[in-house]
């Protein structure tokens, strides 16, 4: 046999020599017996869960700080007049796309409800009795009449600004 083979056999036999039962595990056995002899540890009880108190927002009936102040309305909206076609649609779906001036008459062009509609001051739009009050070159002001939640009615102003192509 060559020297390289003898060296390999010697290494294998040397490695196997460490696998016998002659090892001393007394220190490990002593540690394990010490751990087994201890009294079991106490587990801390779970903390008591306290449900948070519910916050009641009692300002829901107050005016939004982002809307202009409005006062009570003497008239109740209703069937005392003939409904216009545009009152069958939500006012939010309309956009101002232009104005027309014909002498002393001024009209606003609103896009929505399937087309472009021409309105003048006094015309109605939207489901909340929205009436056109002011027509300017770049905006139109509409005032809606809405329930105040207490049996009365409030005027709520809305402004449409001219939509420009972007």
Can you tell me about this structure?
There is one protein chain. With 166 residues, the protein is an alpha+beta fold. The protein has a domain at 85-161: SH3 type barrels, CATH 2.30.30.830. Helices cover 16% and strands 28% of the residues. It is built from two helices and seven strands, in the order ααβββββββ. The chain has helices spanning 3-17, 26-37, and strands at 95-102, 105-112, 115-119, 124-125, 130-135, 139-147, 153-161. Strands 4-5-6-7 form a four-stranded antiparallel β-sheet, with no helix packed on it.
Which blocks of ≥5 consecutive residues have pLDDT under 50? none
Order of helices and strands: HHEEEEEEE
Overall pLDDT metric: 81
Separation, N- and C-terminal Cα atoms? 91 Å
Sequence-ordered SSE layout with sheet pairings:
Layout: H1 3-17, H2 26-37, E1 95-102, E2 105-112, E3 115-119, E4 124-125, E5 130-135, E6 139-147, E7 153-161
Antiparallel strand pairs: 1-2, 2-3, 4-5, 5-6, 6-7
Index terms:
elongated; single chain; alpha+beta; four-stranded antiparallel sheet; 166 residues; three-stranded antiparallel sheet; SH3 type barrels
């Amino acid at each position: 046999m060559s020297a390289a083979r003898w060296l390999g056999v010697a290494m294998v036999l040397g490695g196997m020599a460490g696998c016998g039962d002659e090892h001393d595990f007394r220190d490990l056995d002593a540690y394990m017996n010490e751990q087994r002899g201890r009294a079991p540890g106490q587990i801390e009880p779970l903390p008591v869960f306290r449900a948070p108190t519910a916050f009641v927002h009692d300002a829901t009936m107050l005016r939004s700080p982002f809307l202009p102040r409005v006062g009570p309305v003497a008239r109740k909206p209703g069937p005392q007049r003939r409904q216009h076609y545009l009152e069958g649609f939500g006012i939010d779906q309309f956009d101002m796309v232009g104005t027309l001036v014909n002498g002393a008459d001024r009209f606003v062009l609103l896009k929505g409800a399937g087309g472009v509609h021409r309105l003048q001051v006094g015309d109605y739009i939207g489901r909340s009795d929205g009436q056109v009050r002011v027509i300017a070159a770049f905006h139109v002001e509409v005032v809606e009449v809405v329930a105040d939640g207490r049996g009365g009615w409030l005027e709520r102003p809305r402004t449409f600004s001219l939509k420009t192509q972007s």
